Amino acid sequence: MGFPDRIERTVEVAHPPAKVWAALTTAEGLAAWFGNEATIDLRPGGSARMRWAEGHVAEMRVERVEEPTVFGFTWHIYGLPDDDPRRTYVEFTLEPAGAGTRLTVVESGFAQLPEDTYHKAFDGNTQGWASELGELVAYLDAA
Amino acid sequence: MPPDSETVAEQVFVALADPSRRAILAALAAEGPATATDLAGRLPITRQAIAKHLALLAEAGLVTAQPGERRRVRYRLRSAPMQVAQQFLAALARDWDGPLGALKDHLDKSAHEPGPAGATKL
């Protein structure tokens, strides 16, 4: 079984990099093809957010902004619990290709598993409820 | 040192491949720690089979035995291996083909719209 750490896709689009850049990095652009609503503070460390009609929300943190060639952000790993601190890094690279653009997206970090997170998850998470419930019981007993 | 993530994910998927083990894990998730006898009372599985499955699940690190007398040993779920397997599933479930197709459509469509985008919308 292979554990994919990164996913890569390349598409050729018949539009210049500046136009593709706008679609990737503006609220109007993102809301037109990716989410249903979007906000973005386009600078490293800035926040971006997308919301879909069915209610799913993605919170992103902008990491790289090199107009019009590299746009990178991190986001929560889809499918993991909301409080899981691990994030994947998504990087779009735009290269001129004739009159159009070769757009590559790489999402990496799926296999990250720092040992401390592993141990914390192992012993912290499963005991978390038990100890919180224990504290609640103690609180109620004392009242 | 913890086992590598591939090994952990494999153990989770092997464990989940069996319907009786899925039922046991679901019961522990839903109702908390339980003995093999408790589980036999709740599930249509014999106590002997439950004990066998619990041994396999404990070996894989998916449940842990809490100290107690024989037959009173309670098993509880360990969630960490599930989180490793979830991460594997997350990579498989990540869809870039759909969004990139939508991006191409968006660029093509807006190229054919003269004037400011939105002018022809509601």
Description of the structure:
The complex is a heterodimer of chains A (143) and B (122). The N and C termini of chain A lie far apart (54 Å). Chain A is an alpha+beta fold and 143 residues long. Chain A is built from three helices and seven strands; from the N terminus they run βααββββββα. Chain A has helices at residues 17-25, 27-33, 115-142; strands at 6-13, 37-40, 47-51, 57-66, 70-76, 87-97, 100-108. The longest helix of chain A is centred in the C-terminal third of the chain and has 28 residues, at 115-142. The model of chain A is unreliable at 114-128 (pLDDT under 50). Helix content of chain A is 31%, strand content 38%. In chain B, 61% of the residues lie in helices and 8% in strands. Chain B is built from six helices and three strands. Chain B has a three-stranded antiparallel β-sheet with strand order 1-3-2. In chain B, strand 2 (63-66) and strand 3 (74-77) form a beta hairpin. In chain B, helix 1 crosses helix 5 (80-93). Chain A binds chain B through residues 1-5, 7, 9, 11, 13-15, 19-20, 23-24, 28-29, 32-34, 77-81, 84, 86, 88, 103, 105, 107, 110-111, 113, 115, 118-119, 121-122, 125-126, and chain B through 1-2, 5-6, 9-10, 64, 76-80, 83-84, 86-94, 96-97, 99-100, 102-108, 110-111, 117.
